[in-house]
Amino acid sequence: MYRIQAPDFNIDLTLSCGQVFRWDKKEQWTGVVNGAVIRATQEGSELIIESTLDKKSIQDYFRLEDDLEKIYSEIGRDELITSLIRKYRGLRLIRQDPWECLASYICSSNNTIRNIKNSIRLMCECFGNRIENGYYSFPTPEALSQAELCDMASCRLGFRAPNVRSAAAMIADGEFDLYGIKDLSYEEGREELVKIRGVGNKIADCVLLFAFGKLESFPVDTHIEQIMERYYSENLKDVKKSKKRDAIADSARRYFGKYCGYAQEYLYLEDQEK
DNA sequence: CTCCAGGCTTACG
DNA sequence: CGTAAGCATGGA
């Protein structure tokens, strides 16, 4: 057990806003990151951590190095977003493992957070390694690439199961260099990710934002589309229906600037509460 | 019963 | 080119 200074951090908002799928809060927050169990409690501006992971890994995972004041002043372009910043101060993006993030968001396609969480839990129990009682590692690309579709059916993935398995196979076989995306630009990374079956612009944007820290990424799902149309429709004149979500993302990038990924998460959380 | 969920792919004009 | 159906599953 050890302590970490975490000023300007709200662990409840960070872990419950829908960006990660494998954390639960009982007496304390408990999750599995990079094959290790983490138990975390926040006391004021301190985190109390029980884990085999070291302090540096935790700081990295919760992006405690991000200068939130600077980010807030960049994205705080109007009354709505500044009110959300006041309301949800301390919500941070998380730096997820790229493979877990990619596989998880392939599961998110036309799905609910409740079902996504359930499917991911079943996948970990079925194809991951047991760490301690009740906690499993996220299955490796190798493990999932060798899974039978009939076994994956028990994970309730529906039509997404073949997409998860083929992505796993591309990475396990070395056909796709997922971890090399960290050295690419946002645009180049997106070009690569959408080559994967079941990955379009939105899921690619989630992986670029949540795993590779491309803060200029602005994933547009059904919630963000609605909230952007409601509050920022003046930025969206003459948008064609077929590429509406791309146009919303582009306009948000211009409007909120290079940290628009943070703006997206605050807008998303606001819509979640309704 | 219908509609929708942190969408994507394919088929049709 | 642009649009729309279809896709498994579960909850409202």
Give structural notes:
The mean pLDDT is 97. The protein is of the alpha+beta class. It has helices at 11-16, 55-61, 68-75, 79-87, 98-106, 113-127, 141-145, 149-152, 161-172, 186-193, 201-210, 222-231, 244-256, 260-272, and strands at 2-5, 24-25, 29-33, 36-43, 46-51, 130-132, 135-136. The chain is built from 14 helices and seven strands. The longest helix is centred in the middle third of the chain and has 15 residues, at 113-127. Helix 5 packs antiparallel against helix 11 (201-210). It has three domains: 2-65, TATA-Binding Protein (2-Layer Sandwich), CATH 3.30.310; 67-87 and 214-274, Endonuclease Iii, domain 2; 98-210, Endonuclease III, domain 1 (Orthogonal Bundle), CATH 1.10.340.30. The protein is 47% helix and 11% strand. A five-stranded antiparallel beta sheet has the order 1-5-4-3-2. A two-stranded antiparallel sheet has the order 6-7. The chain binds a DNA duplex (13 and 12 nucleotides) through helix 6, helix 11 and helix 12.
SS-derived structural category: alpha+beta
Helix percent band: 40-55%
Poorly predicted spans: none
The largest sheet, given as strand count, sense and whether it forms a barrel, is: 5 strands, antiparallel
Number of strands: 7
Number of helices: 14
CATH superfamily of the largest domain: Hypothetical protein, domain 2
Residues in β-strands, percent:
5-15%
Instruction: List the quaternary state of the chains.
Output: single chain
Compute the gyration radius: what is it? 18 Å
Termini Cα gap: 37 Å
CATH class of the largest domain: Mainly Alpha
Helix and strand run: EHEEEEHHHHHEEHHHHHHHH
How many domains make up the coordinates?
3
Mean pLDDT, to the nearest integer, reads: 97
Topology-level CATH name of the largest domain:
Endonuclease III, domain 1
Shape: globular
CATH architecture of the largest domain: Orthogonal Bundle
The largest beta-sheet arranges its strands as 1-5-4-3-2
